[in-house]
Design goal:
By secondary structure, the protein is mostly helical. It has six helices and no strands. The longest helix is centred in the C-terminal third of the chain and has 33 residues, at 111-143.
Length: 179
């Protein structure tokens, strides 16, 4: 498996871990929870979920999709579907981020609004990962050679994951220690 393809698959595993962690933290807002939610941890998770997919993960997928489309590889309907999901995910992530920033600014937010936004975000995100794992990634693996991946990589700026590395960015150091 190509290194970039392996990276996309690893990203999905990493994102799933963060989804679970976020879900567990938000569950602590329930009245019957004996543990307090860690708002700073929630904000770190949401910041990563807002930034990393938008800045690195989705651009890599989008560039691979564009490359495949240029060469008439893969299914156009799948590529279009994934592209539209990326747009929907960015909007859902922004909504979630805004809610938690509102809470951080000591403004009231109904727990029902938090749950609804989180449920929507997680359902969309998990469905999206499954669609990519089941439909897009197999098409990429079948269609793209190592040379194709080198061409795709050359079209993108080089970036490193700010969290899932041995030396995470300072902004995510606390989150990294909690994984």
């Amino acid at each position: 498996m190509n290194d970039l393809m392996a990276r996309l698959r690893q990203d999905h595993r990493n994102l799933s871990r963060l989804f679970d962690m976020l879900e567990e933290q938000v569950a602590r807002y329930d009245r019957d929870s004996d543990r307090e939610p860690d708002l700073l941890l929630i904000l770190d998770i949401v910041a990563y979920l807002n930034d990393y997919p938008r800045v690195y993960h989705h651009p890599l997928e989008e560039e691979a999709i564009a490359y495949m489309a240029e060469r008439h590889l893969g299914e156009t309907s799948v590529n279009d579907f994934i592209h539209h999901q990326h747009e929907d995910l960015e909007a859902a992530t922004k909504r979630l981020s805004l809610l938690f920033k509102t809470i951080a600014n000591d403004q009231p937010v109904a727990i029902e609004d938090i749950r609804a936004a989180l449920d929507d975000y997680l359902a969309l995100s998990r469905k999206h990962l499954k669609e990519e794992d089941d439909r897009l990634f197999p098409a990429m693996e079948a269609s793209l050679s190592d040379e194709d991946w080198r061409t795709i990589a050359s079209r993108l700026p080089e970036r490193r994951d700010p969290l899932f590395t041995e030396d995470p960015d300072e902004a995510f150091a606390d989150l990294k220690s909690r994984l």
